[in-house]
Specification:
132 residues, alpha+beta, Chemotaxis protein chec, five-stranded antiparallel beta sheet, 6 helices
Length: 132
C-alpha cells in the first residue's frame, strides 16, 4: 500500500492511478507513465550506448509492468518483478524523490547497516554541503 502522500502525488500526475513498475539498480521502482516516457526519451539521446547501458535498457523493458492503484492505494506486484527483485515475503516501500522503491525487507535492512562513508569525497567534488 502506498503512503497517502505518495498516492496523492501519483494521482496528481496520473489521475487514472497508473503506475509503471520496473527494475533499476537491483530494486523494483515505481514511477508515473510520464516519468517512464521521459526515461525512454533520455536513453534515446545516447547514440552509441555502452554494453552496460544497453543491458540496463533491456532489463528496464523486460521488467516493465503497468499497474493501477486500487481504492486503498494498493498495487499487485507481478510475479516476474517479485522474482527479479528477490522479494520473498516482507517488503519495505521507500520513497526516493519522485519515485518509490520496493525492497525485500532483509535486503533493505542490510543496506541500512552498510557504511557509506566512501561517498564523502564524491559529494565534496560536487560541492554538496550537508546541512547537519
Amino acid at each position: 500500500m502506498l503512503t497517502p502522500e505518495f498516492r496523492d502525488q501519483l494521482l496528481a500526475e496520473s489521475p487514472e492511478g497508473k503506475v509503471v513498475l520496473t527494475m533499476f539498480e537491483g530494486q523494483i521502482i515505481g514511477i508515473t507513465p510520464a516519468q517512464w516516457e521521459t526515461f525512454l526519451s533520455e536513453l534515446d539521446k545516447i547514440s552509441v550506448p555502452s554494453a552496460t547501458l544497453q543491458d540496463v535498457r533491456r532489463k528496464a523493458h523486460f521488467c516493465y509492468a503497468e499497474v493501477v492503484l486500487d481504492k486503498q492505494g494498493r498495487i499487485q506486484l507481478p510475479t516476474h518483478l517479485r522474482k527479479s527483485g528477490r522479494i520473498d515475503r516482507d517488503i519495505v516501500l521507500a520513497g526516493v524523490g519522485r519515485r518509490f522503491e520496493i525492497w525485500d525487507k532483509d535486503r533493505f535492512e542490510a543496506l541500512l547497516e552498510q557504511s557509506h562513508a566512501d561517498v564523502s569525497e564524491e559529494m565534496a567534488r560536487a560541492n554538496i554541503a550537508l546541512p547537519f
